[in-house]
Design brief:
single chain; Glutaredoxin; 206 residues; NXNL1 protein; elongated; alpha/beta; 7 helices
């Protein structure tokens, strides 16, 4: 996914920090479903949709709703008329959002590449940049956060956090219970041997 942004700059929401090196972009975008949100704080349709998208994003990524964030990243591609308008809009949105800098020529490149002619538009991409959904606005309105599971499957995104946690738990369980299992096995063997001796002794006496 970082290949889409090679040589470009993304801004961290509400901060002046730039996410521009390949390593930083890889870390921010790797193994994630990417949403490109083409919108504007002044557009009436965007003003109706943006709160829904904000809630959608938070329910998948905010610890208030989930134990750990879903493999999801959103980049805001602005059609705001001024930088102040873009900044004011982003201040009302989640901090995890990224944004293409205001007035960057890359905005037009993205609009042409993904055939975005009107806003709001949400383009859903696989980690390799392939399109999953050309415009997911209606799907998000209709289905809500549940549609992320379909995107995740389509993108073949590996939920590494889950796998790592699961593997760690398995290893922990094995390391803790193995000595108990071995001890139980030894006890069972001793019991079995004693029973065998008793049985043999009984047969001899008879």
């Amino acid at each position: 996914m970082a290949a889409l942004f090679t040589g470009k700059v993304l801004m961290a929401n509400r901060e002046r920090d730039e996410v521009e090196t390949e390593r930083e972009l890889d870390r921010a975008l790797e193994n994630k479903v990417l949403l490109l949100y083409f919108g504007s704080g002044q557009c009436p349709r965007c003003r109706q949709f943006s709160p829904l998208l904000k809630d959608f994003f938070l329910r998948l990524t905010d610890e208030f709703y989930v134990e750990r964030a879903s493999q999801l990243v959103l980049v805001y591609v602005s059609r705001d008329e001024t930088e102040e308008q873009q900044s004011a809009f982003l201040r009302t949105m989640p901090k995890r959002w990224l944004a293409v800098p205001f007035g960057d020529a890359f905005i037009r490149e993205l609009e042409l590449r993904f055939a975005v002619s009107e806003v709001p538009a949400v383009v859903v991409l696989k980690p390799n940049g392939d399109v999953i959904v050309g415009n997911a606005v209606e799907e998000i309105r209709r289905v809500g956060p549940a549609c992320f599971r379909n995107w995740q499957e389509a993108a073949e995104v590996v939920d590494r956090n889950f796998l790592l946690a699961e593997d760690f738990d398995d290893r922990s369980r094995r390391s803790i219970t193995d000595p108990i299992r071995r001890l139980k096995y030894k006890l069972d063997k001793k019991t079995e041997a004693k029973n065998k001796e008793r049985k043999e002794g009984g047969e001899e006496s008879s």
